[in-house]
Amino acid sequence: MKNINFYLVTDTHYFEPSLGACGKAYDEYMKREQYFMAESSDIVKATFNKLAQDKSTELVIIPGDLTKNGEIESHKGFIKELYRLKEAGKQIYVITAGHDYGEKSRAFVGDECIEVEGTPFEIIPDLYRDFGYGNALAVDSRTLSYVAEVKEGIRMLAINCDSPDKQKGSIDSELYEWMKIQLDKARSDGCCMFAICHYPLIPSVPVFDLVGDAKLRDWRKAASFLADNGVELILTGHMHIQSINEFVSENGNRIVDVCTSCLVGSPAKYRKITVENSVMRVESLDTPPFGIDTNGLTLQEYFDRQFNYSIKNRINGALDGGGIKKIAKKILNKITVGTLGRLLFIKVDKSIKKVKFIDLAGEIGISIFKGDMPFVEGNPVHAAISRFLKRFRFIIGKIEPKLSKNGAKVNLTEMLINTIGNNKDFSDNNTEIILGGNK
């Protein structure tokens, strides 16, 4: 890949504050929301101001979920911020996704959740004509995927896998045909091509391979297609996670997927990526301060608190009700890791015995989304989970065949262990990767 540098910002989920984000219904909604809604506009403004200060990097790429839920007023507010960034000398390219049009556009006024005007899919190219569509070399009008030459000799394939007329997170045969034409054209014109897509191309962590909405559907087919047609790099979002993964096709061609977290919620990162002499350098940067009182917490702790709060509320919400659920909920919120270990005859290191199980679940959840998962072999949490999985190997053995599809056998134990502990040779956050090895 030729030399290039750019900022990568994903899942901005911009919400126009004038629509309304307060009251009883809003507070109830935020119990299970990972990221900040009312503060999102301030976070986007602070981040864009930071990008504007870097005069050495002109290109900014934003692959989808630009707004909270497709509110037309949120698009208008977000586009105003894009124009301010453009006036600072930036060249900006976006792609939209499911949160950017149509359904479930809402706001919170008084103590109620109210419907507000959404955004039709068809007007997206006009709204964002100055941020990708207006100077595109080609646009697939059906999906709103497009190709743009972002730098001389370098083209970007923007894949919209969330268009209304097909299954979300998928690439159908017509889109494959369109992409093949664009990739062949780039090759014949002597241009290299990288891609962006809202959904991760490769499961961010192994267990996400079992979650339909966590990555592109039939992702191995898509990854092989792109790698074998000259695409070495794809930039993604959607899962609000920091991850970098690679896939090698049967033909020996590799593609690297750089998936980046939600800007407005933990881990609250964006990236600066530089490719020089076939070496890609990835640097992860913290969402900057945006004027909120964090009550003595660091900004990262403030983001993490909301994420942890939402995880606990989702777990407890699944146990709402009477009878057995009520008892299970009470136990879950009190039981420690040590007590659980004794009940299951599992040895637990003394350093985590007094930790509440629900708190540990939150810590593991946050660590997965931050990337570079720390619970590797030798860690007390890794040891406890390994023993737990061994204890239930009979049940796991019964589950695995049901999870195995299309001839791919699932090893659930290995999948879970490699999800909580990073087993890759490079970091999910700051790393260098050599490109240029494809045939």
Can you offer a commentary on this structure?
The protein contains 14 helices and 15 strands. It is an alpha/beta fold and 439 residues long. The protein has two domains: 4-291 and 429-434, 4-Layer Sandwich (Purple Acid Phosphatase, chain A, domain 2); 299-420, no CATH class. Helix 8 packs across helix 11. The two termini are 13 Å apart.
Q: Any chance you could write out the topology, listing elements then pairs?
A:
Elements (H helix, E strand, L loop, with lengths): L3 E5 L15 H7 L9 H14 L5 E5 L8 H16 L3 E5 L10 E4 L2 E4 L8 H4 L1 H5 L4 E3 L4 E7 L2 E6 L13 H16 L3 E6 L21 H10 L2 E6 L6 E6 L5 E6 L9 E8 L2 E8 L12 H19 L5 H12 L2 H7 L13 H14 L9 H12 L1 H11 L8 H9 L10 E4 L5
Parallel strand pairs: 1-2, 2-3, 8-9, 9-10, 10-12
Antiparallel strand pairs: 1-13, 4-5, 6-7, 7-8, 11-12, 13-14, 14-15
